[in-house]
Design the sequence.
């Protein structure tokens, strides 16, 4: 041990104060465990500071302006001016309020907070180094540790994030002026959410995507309304291209992004054929790279504690959130897909409870997910195809939003609710929603799946009129062949 | 085609509270035939399975437990 | 029988094509019954033509304009102009699309449509008279009848609806110009929804209410955020007054509404004391009376079929929606409280199914209700007091919206989610929500109640981040003493 070093101890050490880590720490505190939460940057992690919250704040704000300026049909004529620095200040205020709240909640639940970067130093110790000159470091002993170090954006060759015109999502969410034009690399949910924000701010947006559609993780009929809406906002899509390089435009402002066509297997099943399309050149003020995230596990000296990672850097865990070492847990993005805040929070709770000796487990039947585009997407559980693959006979019901009274009164009629059930007993297996408020509507179906509810259960539950949630009921009725407001298939 | 379609393996239909009780009691939900709608497993099903198991596991205890 | 009269027959006769009647007719058609639907006015009834739908359309539209003009905090500066006739045209288009849809759905389900006014003429016959000269009438024989004639607004003495400046909600929803000033009599949900619409249109609104609070059917803490928001929109409230009379203002435009203080029992329990406050005089362009609705049962010659009504004119029914006559059913507003569209639709389904010989019954555990004010209110099942009265030991959990990340990103932090459960087993008994989208959020809790879910079930269901629906989960966790984002009581 280094001379002058202080060693302190804690029963439970949590590394990282994102939605996985701070939730684990609070629950541990509630269960009367002696818990220390180490965070090197900001309480709330990626989600509150640079992810979920700032993105949703900007989405809401730009929606308010955009809706008003596109409501002539409803008799409203407006030409809103957006003051980006005002909008960013407001967003920063929202973030501060929530991260301040996290800090307070931790303290109120007797969580010891420690600022610094933790690295394993042995089976039961970490070294926590403090930023800034002369801040030094300390050694902390623990009985159990919960790793919640999250993820960072993936870089692509030639597009290093340090370079000024190349942005990651964090930087894009904190711009000081509206770029005139923006190339977004990646049409995943982060890329699509931000494409909407910037298009509504007035930026000329082009989205480059390697695969053949926007939101490639989702079925065609879910992503189509989102892509179409983005197109109607003026977003251009270039599918089947990868970003190869960028350079400053000679004799001009801005940059030129060069994109190469993706080599595809020949459709005749023959050998790989380099697509004969030519490279694209896209001029823009900035380029945002949003091609995915990878776990933060390489900076932890995991070997010192004997903790294993998989080939992608994720820390494998069992259904108690345990790593290969009995006394070390991993939760959140660092513990694997889906990299979603609520998945991390749930795992954090389980880890804390397991350490406290409770009979908790990661035993969810279905993990919801949402995309906060226009319209929103909400999904939970199995798609029809997945249900078939798992050996169910799927029974599917749908309800189109254009038949929903509530949707029409919102002047929003794109989208649908789809419910997938098992034919035999009618158990709800999954749901896919594209609709305004899909992120909220999916909650009822998540509960239905967890409870083992059937189509009949949903169909016979009275739903308030006029609401979008009636569409959930109608989709269940449609599966049963007795929908009122749509023809039954 | 004549084969009965069973619920695919590994999938049980039981609410979170029932799954927790099953863990507490050490009962394997896949071994239980649910009595709820559609075969949904209820709290009672799990407790019954737990009782049955402890009954057969500890016959002596049972005889001493009924004093007459 | 009158000479020249035609007698036709139908197995099932449905009178009234509102959400109770048309749903009954469609379900009857789906069950292969020979069904005839008689409507004297417009398909969709009050709800689609003059109630739920037009009110929600105007609420959405005025919200779009109002939000944009009050978003300086979010960096948005707008001064929208509202063209009322454009807004009304759009709203009429929404109504037409939905009522046209109802007609199509009826036809697609083999429902015979008949325009006219029905009156009972015997145990198994009605006479249907057709409007317009020389249209005559016909007799229709039925085996079973479903009465779904709905309700009409209550008039108060001195404020007859025919008089030009005195409006009922139907007329208020179809105004051709924005009144400069409006007195609304009644602070129930219709009065409060329309107070918001007109305040956002720029009308100077005063609400007169006999009782001591807005939305007197709801607990104080639910109605308070709604009243406060209305006040911040400039709505004035006068509680404890009844509208006594109105007259034209001499030498001026508009009318003067005179309101008398309500006589109250003396607080010492002594005799009735006329409140010593003086009468109020309120000058306005128009006055909207929204003091409640009463059943349309007096124009049906019910005696001819031997059908009874109660003292308020409602037709009492059993849990199969049956009246005192075995072969006659009553559904919707005419069959009693709560006078809500979804309650009527559910009863309509049950009536049709019972006639078809199915084992259906009105057996809901809880009836949801929503108020589409700002913020919205959504309720289902029991309040804490009601649960106590019914002999439960209530366990209550709450989550304040100001702790919701999603609410803050919407710049909407007024309100809360409250869940009432039974202490012993944790079964969900009821929920009260004041929040944006409360009308949608209540759906999950309705399903929870119908399925006999517990607090633990909701708390252990993963809810998407960041959503308002997380507040439902947090309220359940709060009841269990384990909320993460709020202190546990
Ligand atoms: C733009 C964007 C939008 C998103 N939107 C959504 C959304 O709407 N919904 C959703 O569910 N998810 C969303 N996500 C994903 C979500 O942010 C993550 O899933 C979530 O933050 C993961 O939580 P976590 O606690 O595992 O990790 P993180 O939130 O990444 O937190 C990890 C924390 O650990 C700290 N840390 C790392 N290493 C150390 C160390 N050695 N010592 C001390 N501290 C350390 C980091 O500083 C960080 O604060 C979004 C992400 C982005 C980028
Ligand atoms: C402004 C306003 C807003 C509202 N908002 C909501 C809301 O958001 N949510 C909600 O749940 N409820 C709302 N309501 C209440 C809702 O409109 C009623 O509960 C619902 O319409 C009742 O349906 P019903 O089918 O019983 O009757 P109605 O909708 O009233 O339909 C009855 C039909 O019967 C016809 N009829 C009557 N007598 C005869 C006869 N003798 N022969 C032939 N036809 C006849 C009428 O013309 C009418 O079309 C609102 C009401 C108003 C006024």
Sequence:
């Amino acid at each position: 041990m280094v001379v002058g070093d202080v060693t302190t101890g804690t029963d439970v050490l949590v590394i990282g104060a994102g939605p996985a880590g701070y939730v684990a720490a609070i629950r541990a505190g509630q269960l009367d465990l002696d818990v220390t939460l180490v965070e090197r940057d900001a309480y709330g992690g990626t989600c509150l500071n640079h992810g979920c919250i700032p993105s949703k704040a900007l989405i809401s704000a730009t929606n308010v302006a955009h809706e008003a300026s596109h409501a002539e049909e409803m008799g409203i004529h407006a030409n809103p001016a957006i003051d980006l620095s005002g909008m960013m200040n407001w967003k920063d205020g929202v973030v501060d309020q929530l991260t301040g709240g996290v800090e307070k909640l931790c303290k109120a639940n007797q969580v010891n907070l420690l600022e610094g970067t933790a690295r394993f130093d042995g089976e039961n110790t970490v070294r926590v180094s403090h930023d800034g000159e002369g801040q030094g470091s300390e050694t902390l002993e623990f009985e159990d540790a919960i790793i919640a170090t999250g993820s960072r954006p993936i870089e692509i060759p030639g597009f290093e994030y340090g370079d000024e015109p190349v942005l990651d999502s964090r930087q894009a969410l904190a711009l000081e002026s509206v770029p005139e034009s923006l190339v977004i690399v990646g049409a995943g949910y982060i890329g699509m959410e931000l494409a909407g924000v910037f298009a509504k701010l007035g930026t000329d947006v082009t989205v480059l995507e390697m695969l053949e559609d926007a939101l490639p993780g989702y079925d065609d009929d879910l992503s189509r309304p989102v892509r179409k809406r983005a197109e109607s906002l003026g977003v251009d899509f270039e599918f089947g291209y990868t970003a190869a390089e960028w350079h400053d435009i000679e004799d001009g402002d801005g940059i030129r992004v060069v994109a190469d066509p993706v080599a595809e297997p020949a459709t005749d099943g023959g050998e790989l054929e380099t697509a004969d399309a030519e490279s694209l050149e896209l001029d823009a003020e900035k380029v945002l790279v949003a091609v995915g995230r990878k776990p933060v596990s390489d900076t932890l000296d995991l070997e010192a504690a004997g903790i294993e990672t998989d080939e992608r850097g994720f820390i494998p865990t069992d259904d108690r959130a345990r790593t290969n070492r009995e006394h070390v847990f991993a939760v959140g993005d660092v513990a694997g897909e889906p990299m979603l805040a609520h998945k991390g929070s749930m795992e954090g709770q389980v880890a804390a409870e397991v350490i406290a000796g409770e009979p908790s487990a990661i035993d969810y039947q279905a993990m919801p997910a949402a995309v906060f585009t226009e319209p929103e997407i909400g999904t939970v559980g199995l798609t029809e195809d997945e249900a078939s693959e798992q050996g169910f006979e799927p029974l599917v019901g749908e309800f189109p939003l254009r038949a929903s009274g509530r949707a029409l009164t919102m002047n929003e009629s794109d989208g649908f609710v789809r419910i997938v059930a098992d034919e035999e007993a009618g158990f709800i297996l999954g749901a896919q929603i594209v609709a305004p408020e899909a992120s909220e509507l999916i909650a009822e179906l998540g509960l239905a799946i967890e409870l083992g509810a059937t189509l009949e259960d949903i169909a016979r539950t009275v739903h308030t009129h006029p609401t979008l949630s009636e569409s959930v009921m109608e989709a269940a009725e449609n599966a049963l062949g007795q929908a009122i407001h749509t023809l039954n298939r | 085609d004549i084969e009965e379609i069973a619920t695919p393996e590994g999938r049980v239909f039981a609410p979170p509270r029932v799954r927790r009780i099953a863990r507490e009691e050490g009962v394997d939900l896949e071994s239980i035939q649910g009595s709820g709608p559609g075969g949904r497993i209820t709290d009672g099903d799990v407790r019954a399975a737990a009782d049955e198991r402890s009954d057969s596991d500890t016959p002596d205890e049972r005889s001493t437990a009924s004093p007459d």
The pocket of flavin-adenine dinucleotide (ligand 1) is lined by residues A 15-21, 38-41, 45-47, 51-52, 55, 117-118, 148-151, 169, 190, 296, 299-300, 332-334, 339-342, 344, 372; C 465-466 (CB under 6 Å). The mean pLDDT of chain A is 95.
